[in-house]
Structures are given as structure tokens and as C-alpha cells.
Amino acid sequence: TFEYGDLKISPNSADAESDVKVSCKVTNTGKYKGDEVVQLYTRDEVASVVTYDKRLAGFERVSLEPGETKTVVFTIKPRKNLTIFDKDMREIVEPGEFTIFVGSSSEATRLTGKLTIKSR
User: Fold this and answer.
1) How far apart are CA 111 and CA 74, in angstroms?
2) 3-state secondary structure of 107
3) What CA–CA distance (Å, rounded) separates 18 from 23?
4) Residue 80 in 3-state DSSP?
5) Who's near 38: CB < 8 A, 6+ residues apart?
6) Is the pTM of this model over 0.85?
7) What b-and-e string marks burial along 16-54, b requiring 16 or more CB atoms within 10 Å of the CB?
8) How far from chain centre, in Å, is Cα 11?
9) Cβ 17 vs Cβ 119: under 8 Å
10) CA 94 to chain centre
11) What is the pLDDT of residues 3-42, one digit of tens each?
């Protein structure tokens, strides 16, 4: 079994050209060594067009001994991870609020946070 905690989003407000670091700690709370695939998802809360409910933005497999904790760090690149096609089929990053999810699957997200993308 694994426990997630200490979600950090830095910076939590950025423009479409700036990388954003997302990190969390994962602890093996079980009796045996195990692997966990930590997954990062994003959701655009207010888009001008219909978008995915959650979109996979990264994942990392970590191997942990019983009681061991590791920090997992992801980089969100807005031009890569937060783009949508607008009504004119142009690929854009819209300013607004995004929810960040971290967990073992899209259904089992354990941590959530907010990221704001500012217009330039």
C-alpha cells in the first residue's frame, strides 16, 4: 500500500511559456517492497470548448522499500500539456484555472491542487 502527500505546485500561477514543477511524496506503507506508478493529470476548469475531464500529463514508476518515502517531481509545460483546439481548430493555451491531480490512476487520484495560467 502507498500513501501520497505534500503536493507542491511551483509556481501556482504562470504564463503559457513558463514551466511548472509539481511534486509529491509517496510512501510505501506496506510490509513488502513494491512499485507504484505515480500519475499526473490536469483538468481545464473553464475552457471555451469541451475538453477531457482529466488529461494525463506525466507518470513515473517508483520502487520503494517498506516505510521508504520518495519525492516524485513532474514538469508541466503549458505549450505541451495544457493546449486545446479552439473553435477555429487553432492549438492554444487558454488562460484560466486548471486542477492538478496526482495518484495511482485517473480514478484513484489522491492529491489535488490548483494552477492558474495567466494571459500575456
Assistant:
1) 14
2) coil
3) 16
4) helix
5) 4, 24, 26, 59, 60, 61, 62, 72, 102, 103, 104
6) yes
7) beeebebebebbbeeeeebebebbbbbbbeeeeeebeee
8) 13
9) no
10) 17
11) 999 999 999 999 999 999 999 999 999 999 999 999 999 9
| Residue whose grid cell is 492549438 | 91
Cell representation of residue 47:
475552457
> Residue 116 forms beta bridges with which residues?
13, 97
CA distances to 22, 30, 40, 56 from 113, in Å: 9, 26, 11, 15
Dihedral in degrees, nearest 10, Cα atoms 114, 52, 2, 74 = -60
CA 76 from centre of chain: 7
Q: Is the dihedral of CA 59, 37, 102, 21 positive or negative?
A: negative
